[in-house]
Amino acid sequence: MNIKFSAADLFEKVKERKPLVHQITNFVTVNDCANATLAIGGSPVMTSSPKEVEAMVKLADALVLNFGTIDEKSLEAMEIAGRTANSRNIPVILDPVGVGATPYRTEKASELLKKVSFQIIRGNASEIHRLIGGDIVTRGVDSEELAISNEALAVSAAKELNSVVVVSGAIDAVSNGKHTSLIDNGNVLLTNVTGTGCMATALIGAFSGITDDYYAAAVAGISTMSISGEIAAETLQKHEGTGTFRVRLIDAISRMDKEMWMNEVKMNEEITH
Amino acid sequence: MNIKFSAADLFEKVKERKPLVHQITNFVTVNDCANATLAIGGSPVMTSSPKEVEAMVKLADALVLNFGTIDEKSLEAMEIAGRTANSRNIPVILDPVGVGATPYRTEKASELLKKVSFQIIRGNASEIHRLIGGDIVTRGVDSEELAISNEALAVSAAKELNSVVVVSGAIDAVSNGKHTSLIDNGNVLLTNVTGTGCMATALIGAFSGITDDYYAAAVAGISTMSISGEIAAETLQKHEGTGTFRVRLIDAISRMDKEMWMNEVKMNEEITH
Amino acid sequence: MNIKFSAADLFEKVKERKPLVHQITNFVTVNDCANATLAIGGSPVMTSSPKEVEAMVKLADALVLNFGTIDEKSLEAMEIAGRTANSRNIPVILDPVGVGATPYRTEKASELLKKVSFQIIRGNASEIHRLIGGDIVTRGVDSEELAISNEALAVSAAKELNSVVVVSGAIDAVSNGKHTSLIDNGNVLLTNVTGTGCMATALIGAFSGITDDYYAAAVAGISTMSISGEIAAETLQKHEGTGTFRVRLIDAISRMDKEMWMNEVKMNEEITH
User: Which residues from B are below 8 Å from A252, CB to CB?
Assistant: First the structure.
């Protein structure tokens, strides 16, 4: 089936099934992630205590692990929750925020990749490049420019990491190693508010909680964020700025449905093998 | 005195007295709780370090303990702060978020109820049901449907827990075991943004900081949130969604006064004994 | 050069240079601080794990330490990051939130002042007064009225603490001990939303990341917040409240440029020595 139709069908389903998305995430954008999850139709739960993540993830339809503000305790929780999810075939999604910025972050991501199997990984180009052994130094949590295209990077990383990989940027690339979708939606204002990457991963988490087609879930999630950025920017008045943009972003996510998505998405798929 | 007039009188008083509301809460909705407290006229302080909660709560007019993201450290802080508040007759309000979802959460709530005396407890039906020994399994942090009405549950729980109990839902029930108020305000969008329950508890905390009539404080707090949900939803335009709804919710709380509340509240009181 | 022109020149520069501002801050307003930093043109990174702050701060252009919700772990991270920044001439900015409210907070601030050299310190009058040995008891995290003017307090504190000091309030005073600027912008609604003080410090952090003139950076940062409060309040409609005000505050920060700032700022400078 065409990827566009597979992804489109998920919008009604997520609202019907209301998947429980357990997220062990950072303390900067945790509220945004919970609201984005609710806006698309999921049910978020954000506990990160090692004392209860095993019991909580057993109730969940998907698990999101976000590296934004890792510490010893959250890493312990991620490992417990990740292993439990793997043993129960609950999909696990990684957002390697800031990997490449410090040796600690890079090492811990590498360790976690050995212990937990991820069905989807979403990051910007520098983060994904670093995950597959590139030596770029990320400056803080924002992306650096690379010589390699997002498309080529997504394909390589999907093969090497044996996961669906989303490289988000001006053009978002989603690859399962064999098929690759390029999404040409978005707006530069998405880089001027915090949490848009984290929220995209939360949306991918929600969609992956209702289907085994993780490639379609990743396409639906990342494109929802990029399209919402476009819609939010279009309605911005002269006297408004990034505060209003951020509110309209959640507005657009909460209004997204199959019809709106089909009308707005600009994507094509390439068969890479 | 009529509960409606007792509650109505608190709106001016909270703005005059600006009660200091110490909140040991979760990291998902902590910012929303602080802003809701400020919006109604209170002054929030959110420290949760066991090293300083004893000194901080001594300055406070009310203490709110919220279970959203409990861990060992926050539970230790809750116990210290709760005991200190009890010894000084500072009202303590419990929000048992997610109790019933994991054994850890249920056990820790049960332990805290033995160590700290709560003047008001607010939760959804599943959480309150579980607090009094019901065996429902909560799915994440959202409520399940129960066979018992919110009213009957609030009355039972108030008697068993020896506290004012608020069961929030489509109809909010507030009971002190003898008198029970039913509030028929609200909007379904309140379940589509995170933190509306936590904010309701924060508002109850603010009102309980200015009166000994905790039943009236609970009615004023929960009804303010439900009415604000109605007002926020009424003004929503076609192109707006849950992002704007969330902003308007705080707008409505900040504009709530005695007159507006008297005009909007739909409640009746039943004498249960 | 005139302080007004020195400060004005920073608005274009911060957008060109996009300084990386490492912030070890509180979990209440951390999202607001990140968004304010992005809105003015900086790049925020908020990690506070003692395991990686040394590596992270080496990449940064400025370091902000905020006392809002200190605990043992964040204090350890602040000391490591502060010493590292000092050894590399990266400016360090202190926001002593709530100092004076509990002995723990006051002692820890005093200890940190001995271990780390701060280039800029911003607080309300009670916090700054307490930092220089005043005995006022702060009630929670809000300011008390003092007999001394903000101007006199800023001058004394700047001399005693050997730092640029910002005392924010109805009139903001910024002093380096020799020169003192008084800024008469602002709106009372700034006290009705959480995080406006923290965001002001984040803005000062962003400006201090692109200049050695910390006095000008402090003036640019604090005045941006006060002017934005004015602009946000001016456009508020009758049916709007503090929720919308908070959104417009970020809007105004994101639209602030040299021309707008020159038109709006109401300040004069006094030579104090």
Answer: 241
